[in-house]
Amino acid sequence: MENRVFAAMAEAGYGDITVAQARLLQRIGPDGTRLTVLAEAAQVTKQTAGFLVDQLERAGYVERVPDPADGRARLVRLTGRALEGIPVADREVAKVEQEWERHIGKRRMAQLRETLTMLREITDPYQ
């Protein structure tokens, strides 16, 4: 799935995103997220998260803005360029899921989704 999404993103002009950057991007909330929270959620050091955010900022995918809740803090927020890429990824995910469903059937696909959702509860505490 990941390979297909990255290929679709590259074809649509978003080929400059790495896997590590994508994992960070996925964890940015709609109103922005503090760097320390991103680092913890992505399970990387704050320095690594800062490095990845610097790269994403240069590529135009994120911006740093003041945190309205704390003027001393900053939030990392998605830019229009990043938001425009989300439907590209979503379409490819839907295509792959349709292929899987045709291959294993609706019932098994529903079971797979349910199982993966349940496993996420214990594998991704930052969901």
From TrEMBL:
HTH marR-type domain segment(s): 1-121
Top-level taxonomic group: Bacteria
Coiled coil (UniProt feature): none
Protein's GO biological process: response to stress
Pfam families on file: MarR_2
Single GO MF annotation: DNA-binding transcription factor activity
SUPFAM superfamilies named among the record's database cross-references: Winged helix' DNA-binding domain (SSF46785)
PROSITE patterns: HTH_MARR_2
Protein name: MarR family transcriptional regulator
